[in-house]
């Protein structure tokens, strides 16, 4: 098993998610924050549908949320409504086009396919499950693994000398501990 910590696996999976989001949302003229905002508003109750709540939930600045809300309002995905009791408060309501947009973009096909690829496997740890999820996501998405050299199928060690068979280059101790974009896992090679 590749020696990656749970945190590194989560970070790499998150990176793949963000890349998939950017690709999908930019085709719609939107950014991930726009969809995250709509998704939050579709999930929150009437006490939490305010700009301040969006700011807190997404962990963003007031300025970023304000700009995000302006874009979504201009595109006809949401509207601001003044609170009936407290005229200083504003509630955010998703309009029908915003609801339709949310239904059309989630979930990501790449994640559905990756989940199907690992659905029936048993794992002995969260790290093992995350590693398999990462490999499945990378296979489905056609992205590089970026694994440690020492765990790559093209890594060679003979008499305490390290060598990359793919790049036809010698490796030193520091090289084998670092990640490489040319990494090929046993799973990716089709040998499993």
Automatic annotation (TrEMBL):
GO MF annotations, alphabetized: DNA-binding transcription factor activity
Pfam families in the cross-refs: MarR_2
GO CC entries: cytoplasm
Highest taxon above the source species: Bacteria
Subcellular localization, as worded in the UniProt entry: Cytoplasm
InterPro entries for the chain: HTH_MarR-typ, MarR/SlyA-like, WH-like_DNA-bd_sf, WH_DNA-bd_sf
GO biological process: response to stress
Gene3D superfamilies: Winged helix-like DNA-binding domain superfamily/Winged helix DNA-binding domain
Domain HTH marR-type span(s) in chain numbering: 3-139
Protein name: MarR family transcriptional regulator
Organism this protein belongs to: Methyloprofundus sedimenti
Lineage of the species this protein comes from: Bacteria, Pseudomonadati, Pseudomonadota, Gammaproteobacteria, Methylococcales
